[in-house]
C-alpha cells in the first residue's frame, strides 16, 4: 500500500530518485545499466504476472501449464523463474546478498529466453559496492513505477526514454552518442512514413529510431505486423541497451549476432530495405584502415573517389544507399553540416578527402537520389552543439501514389528547408548533481508544419515547383541551379533570406530622424527657458 507521501510523487521525481540512489558508487555506464536493468526486470515481471493470471483463467492453476515457457513466449512475454521475479526482489530487498541475487537473476533470465541473449547487464550489481540499504532504496523506488499509480498510455516507453535521455544528458560526448532527441526521430518517421517493409538503422544506438517507427505506425492506425526492424551497433553496451529497450516494448528485431562495425563487419550483407532511419556518429574518424574496403561493393561504384578515412560521413551515405530498395527505398538520416559542402569551395577544397566527398556528392545528386535537405536548429542534442542537417534520400521520385496521396514527378528537384530559426521551444533537463541543461525541441505543430511543406511539395497539386518557396523557410530547387553552385547543399545558398536593413526607406527614415531631433532641441530650449525663469524668481541671473 502506497503512503500518502509516495502518492504525491510525480513519475519524474520517482525516476530521479532511482538515479540518486546510486550516486557516488559505480561508473556512469554501470549506474545507467543497473537502473535500466531493474526497470526491465520490473516491467518484464509485470507482464509475466499478467500473463500468468490469464493462463490460470484459461487452464486453471495447473503447474504443467503455468510453467510452460511457450505459453508465455507466444504472447511476447518472457518466462521468469521464481527467483527472477520482481516480487522476489521486493521481499529480499534488505538481504546482505541482494546484489549477488540480482546478478544471478539477470544471467538466468537470459539463459531461459534466447532472444535476450547478450541484452541484460551481467555481473554489475555486486561490483557496484552499493550498501544493502541503498540497494533496498533503489528497489523500493523502482517498485513505485506501476500503472495503478501513474496512468500513462506508454509507461514502459516513458520510463525507458527518461533514463536514456537523462543519462545521455549527463554523459560526455562519447557516452551520449546513443540517444537522439525523440522529436527529431519523430520528424524523420513522419517524413519517410514507414508503414510496411523493413526499417533499418546501421548505427542503431539504443533503438530509438525503431521505437519511433512503431509509434508512427500506431498513431496512424497502421499494422505493426507489416513492419520489420533490422539494425546494427558497434558499441557493446549500447547494443545491449537496444536489445533491452526493444524487447521490453514487444518490438521484435534483428540486431545481428553481436555488436560490430557496420563498415568492417556488416551483419546484414546483401539485404535490401524499404526504409532507413539513422543518426550516425558525427564526423567519425578512423572508420577504416588505410587500404581497407577500397574494393568494397558499397563504395566501388564511386571510385576513384573513396570516403576519406578521416571522416565517415559519406561512407554512411553510400552504405545506406547500398541497402535501399532500388524501387521504393527512402532514407532519413542526420549528418553534421560539413557534409553539405565538403570540397565545394570550402577550406578543404584542395584536400584529398574534401575532394572525394565533393565527387561523391556530385554523383549522388546527378543520380537524383537527394529529395530534401533540412537544416535543424542548434542545441538539439545532449552531448554536442554541432550544427546538424536532416537528409532525405529517395530512390523513387517519379509520379505515383503513396499512402493515399498522389505524387508528382520530382526528378531533378531538391526541397531545401531551413529550420535554424525555430529555436524558441526550450526544454530543461536535470542532469547529475542537480545541474541543468537546456535543449531546443520541436513541438507537435512544428513537426506537422514540416510534414505539410514536404508533402505539399510532393503532391500533384504543386503545379509550379519553380515558385514553391517561402523566404527564410523553404524552396524547391532544380538540379541545374545546384550544379551552378558547385553541388553545395547548404540551404541558405538557395533559400531567400531577407536583409532587414535593405528594406529601409532611407529618405523616410532620415526625415523621421530629423523631425525627432527638432522636437528634442525644441524641448531642450523650453526646458532651458523654464530654468532661467525659475532662477530669476529667486534673484539669480544666468549669464
Characterise the protein shown here.
This protein is an alpha/beta fold and 543 residues long. It contains 17 helices and 14 strands. It has helices spanning 4-8, 11-21, 28-59, 63-66, 69-73, 86-91, 98-112, 132-143, 155-170, 182-192, 208-219, 236-248, 313-323, 352-366, 444-458, 479-484, 506-537; strands spanning 197-201, 227-231, 253-254, 275-278, 330-336, 370-375, 388-394, 400-402, 405-407, 413-418, 426-430, 436-440, 469-470, 474-478. The strands form 3 sheets. A 10-stranded mixed sheet has the order 3-2-1-4-5-7-6-10-14-13, with helices on both faces. Strand 1 (197-201), helix 11 and strand 2 (227-231) form a beta-alpha-beta unit. Helix 2 (11-21) runs antiparallel to helix 8 and helix 10 runs parallel beside helix 15.
Question: Notable features of this structure?
Answer:
543 residues, alpha/beta, ten-stranded mixed β-sheet, two-stranded antiparallel sheet, 17 helices, 14 strands, 41% helix, 12% strand, globular
Amino acid at each position: 500500500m502506497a503512503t500518502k507521501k509516495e502518492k504525491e510523487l510525480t513519475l519524474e521525481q520517482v525516476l530521479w530518485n532511482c538515479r540518486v540512489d546510486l550516486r557516488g558508487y559505480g561508473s556512469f555506464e554501470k549506474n545507467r545499466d543497473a537502473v535500466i536493468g531493474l526497470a526491465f526486470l520490473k516491467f518484464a515481471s509485470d507482464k509475466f504476472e499478467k500473463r500468468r493470471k490469464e493462463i490460470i483463467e484459461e487452464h486453471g492453476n495447473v503447474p504443467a501449464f503455468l510453467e510452460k515457457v511457450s505459453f508465455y513466449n507466444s504472447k511476447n512475454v518472457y518466462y521468469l523463474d521464481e527467483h527472477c521475479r520482481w516480487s522476489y526482489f521486493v521481499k529480499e530487498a534488505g538481504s546482505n546478498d541482494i546484489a549477488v541475487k540480482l546478478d544471478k537473476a539477470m544471467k538466468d533470465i537470459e539463459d531461459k529466453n534466447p532472444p535476450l541473449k547478450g541484452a541484460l547487464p551481467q555481473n554489475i550489481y555486486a561490483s557496484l559496492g552499493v550498501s544493502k540499504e541503498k540497494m533496498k532504496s533503489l528497489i523500493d523506488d523502482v517498485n513505485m513505477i506501476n500503472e495503478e499509480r501513474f496512468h500513462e498510455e506508454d509507461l514502459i516507453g516513458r520510463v525507458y526514454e527518461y533514463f536514456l535521455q537523462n543519462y545521455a544528458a549527463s554523459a560526455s560526448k562519447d557516452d551520449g552518442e546513443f540517444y537522439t532527441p525523440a522529436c527529431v526521430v519523430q520528424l524523420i518517421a513522419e517524413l519517410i512514413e514507414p508503414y510496411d517493409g523493413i526499417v533499418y538503422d546501421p548505427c542503431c544506438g539504443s533503438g530509438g529510431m525503431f521505437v519511433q517507427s512503431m509509434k508512427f505506425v500506431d498513431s496512424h492506425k497502421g499494422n505493426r505486423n507489416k513492419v520489420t526492424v533490422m539494425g546494427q551497433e558497434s558499441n557493446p553496451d549500447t547494443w545491449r541497451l537496444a536489445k533491452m529497450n526493444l524487447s521490453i516494448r514487444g518490438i521484435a528485431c534483428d540486431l545481428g549476432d553481436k555488436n560490430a562495425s557496420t563498415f568492417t563487419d556488416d551483419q546484414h550483407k546483401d539485404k535490401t530495405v524499404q526504409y532507413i532511419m539513422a543518426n550516425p556518429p558525427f564526423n567519425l574518424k578512423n572508420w577504416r584502415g588505410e587500404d581497407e574496403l577500397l574494393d568494397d561493393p558499397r563504395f566501388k561504384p564511386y571510385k576513384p573517389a573513396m570516403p576519406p578515412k578521416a571522416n565517415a560521413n559519406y561512407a554512411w551515405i553510400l552504405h545506406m544507399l547500398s541497402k535501399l530498395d532500388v524501387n521504393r527505398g527512402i532514407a532519413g538520416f542526420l549528418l553534421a553540416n560539413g557534409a553539405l559542402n565538403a570540397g565545394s569551395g570550402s577550406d578543404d577544397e584542395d584536400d584529398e578527402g574534401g575532394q572525394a566527398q565533393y565527387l561523391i556528392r556530385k554523383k549522388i545528386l546527378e543520380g537524383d537520389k537527394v529529395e530534401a535537405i533540412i537544416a535543424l536548429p542548434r542545441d538539439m542534442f545532449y552531448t554536442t552543439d554541432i550544427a546538424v542537417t536532416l537528409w532525405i534520400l529517395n530512390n523513387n521520385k517519379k509520379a505515383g501514389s503513396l499512402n493515399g496521396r498522389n505524387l508528382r514527378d520530382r526528378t531533378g528537384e531538391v526541397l531545401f528547408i531551413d529550420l535554424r530559426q525555430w529555436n524558441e521551444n526550450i526544454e530543461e533537463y536535470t542532469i547529475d548533481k542537480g545541474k541543468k541543461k537546456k535543449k531546443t525541441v520541436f513541438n507537435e505543430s512544428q513537426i506537422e508544419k514540416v510534414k505539410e511543406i514536404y508533402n505539399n511539395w510532393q503532391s500533384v497539386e504543386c503545379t509550379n515547383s519553380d515558385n514553391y518557396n517561402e523566404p527564410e523557410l523553404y524552396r524547391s530547387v532544380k538540379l541545374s541551379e545546384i550544379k551552378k553552385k558547385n553541388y553545395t547543399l547548404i540551404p541558405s545558398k538557395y533559400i531567400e533570406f531577407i536583409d532587414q536593413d535593405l528594406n529601409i526607406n532611407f529618405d523616410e527614415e532620415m526625415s523621421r530622424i530629423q523631425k525627432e531631433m527638432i522636437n528634442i532641441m525644441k524641448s531642450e530650449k523650453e526646458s532651458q527657458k523654464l530654468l532661467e525663469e525659475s532662477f530669476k524668481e529667486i534673484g539669480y541671473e544666468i549669464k
